[in-house]
Amino acid sequence: MSKEHWMRDLPPELRDLPIVNLAIPGSHNSMTYGINSNSTLAPDAESAIRRWHRFFPCFVRRWSKNQSSNILEQLHLGVRYFDLRIAQNDDKFYYCHGLFAMEVFEPLQELRQFLDTHPGEMLILDLQHFYNMTVAQHQRLHKELLQFFDQRLYATTDGYLLECSLTRCAELQRQVVLIYRRCPIGLPPQFWPSYAWPTPWPNTASVKKLQSFLADSLLSRQPQQGYVSQCLLTPTGRYIALRVFFTLKRTAKRVDKKLKPWILEQLPGPFGSGQAPRVNVFLADFVNLKNGQFCNWVVELNTKLEPAQDKSESQDDPL
């Protein structure tokens, strides 16, 4: 079932909730679908990847691509959080994950067109990592992003994250929350810092350890923050070497199968100090598996939410 308009179709009481209290599907390394046979090594490539790429470039591509659906397909599946890794090369900005993908603004053009035709939807762009970039290049990227999104960005001056609901953003004509992590210079007010939206990294190749990590790390979530649960494995060099004929997609299928019960039992919504933290964003590889089943699971979690009560009694001091 298409989730093209799932935010627009939420009942009014959920559109009035802060987006940090909704269950939102996200894609890990969202733009790696752009990696192809012409892709060259990116500055984030580890030494083992560089050695393998010299003799087995096809093998490296298989383990560098975390998504096979393009940006528009991801949006139609219901993805509203995008995990972005950026590197500089030849004075241009590219997405990357071991290998270079496309230029940064190429898929963002399609994303902006989607927003034009879907005024009821809102997106979170998480610029996670930057490679081979100077202070001057960060300044330039800031400027280009601000020009590109213009008035669409929900800024820190527009209000706290706990005031950032779909209803309020529609009134302000804001459709994008942009997180800019690990920046060596000050951020403009249109960008949100890392601490506003924690995204703990499991860093394990074991599904059992992954589930324990997700449950344990969620306990650290603060009521005024967004939060990302990374439902994915991180294959080590040894893991990959022992699975020469496997692909990252096969790994993602196993994660989906094993984590489905845990995901389905989660609850989004407001919570206060002393209460069990609730979920927000879920991140996954290959979100198109089985017609976007992962996105369907996450979006359907919002049906568990009761009409919002007096949230002032259940929230801590906002960011």
Record keyword descriptors for this entry:
single chain; 9 strands; 15% strand; globular
Distance between the termini: 36 Å
Cα radius of gyration in angstroms: 19 Å
Tally of individual helices = 11
What's the helical proportion of residues? 25-40%
Largest sheet: 9 strands, mixed
Could you give the order of the helices and strands? Answer: HEHHHEEEHEHHEEHEHHEH
Overall average residue pLDDT: 93
Which secondary-structure class do the elements indicate? Answer: alpha/beta
Instruction: Give start-end ranges of low-pLDDT stretches.
Output: 308-314
| β-sheet strand percentage | 5-15%
User: Shape from CA axes?
Assistant: globular
- Report the strand count: 9
Please describe what this structure looks like.
The chain is an alpha/beta fold and 319 residues long. It is built from 11 helices and 9 strands. It has helices at residues 12-15, 47-55, 57-64, 71-77, 105-117, 135-149, 166-172, 207-218, 237-241, 248-264, 289-300, and strands spanning 24-27, 81-89, 92-97, 99-103, 123-131, 176-180, 191-192, 228-230, 281-284. Strands 1, 2, 3, 4, 5, 6, 7, 8 and 9 form a 9-stranded mixed sheet that branches. It starts with 11 loop residues before the first helix and ends in a 19-residue tail after the last helix.
